[in-house]
Amino acid sequence: MSAMWKPSHPATITPSAPAEPARPATSSPSFEPTAANRATAVPADQATIGKGLFVKGEIGGSESLFIDGKVEGSINLPGNRVTVGRNGQVAATIAAREIVVLGKVRGNVSASDRVDIRAEGALTGDVSAARISIEDGAFFKGGIDIRKVEGAKAAAAVQTSASTNAQTSAPTNAEAAKNL
Q1: What is the span of the domain harbouring residue 70?
Q2: Per-residue DSSP letters for 25-90?
């Protein structure tokens, strides 16, 4: 006779599927950029043209643009930033608030604020901007037109001239009414 083992407590029914092995506890992923990748973090309102894309035509819109592919034509993003990445190749006129060149750009660029050509960047064309920065090692061939932006002074002058015109035109209109 063979001896049979009997558990001391009632048997529990286990499913026939094998149990999943225990996984080590992991912390939930953090979406906060760390100090190391904060400089490369992509803002929420920035579009990207990746390495494998080629765009030919006009690009316009109301958000910043990162170009790591090829673009031919014109880019018009007033009030926003256009960044040409290390792999980017652009043959276009660019108009934006800020233009950063890490790759290759062939064409005229116009920035309402600044143009920044980094050490690995190359720009062939005329630049029109309030400020320009060309790092050591960068390639640039073209003309530079630095525009002075007076900002608050220009706005104050416009308001002053508008109020002066309103004051001088009011008596003229009153005199015209008397003459009728």
Answers
A1: 46-152
A2: P-PPPP-SPPTTTTTTPPPTTEEEE-TT-EEEEEEE-SSEEEE-SEEEEEEEEEEEEEEE-TT-EE
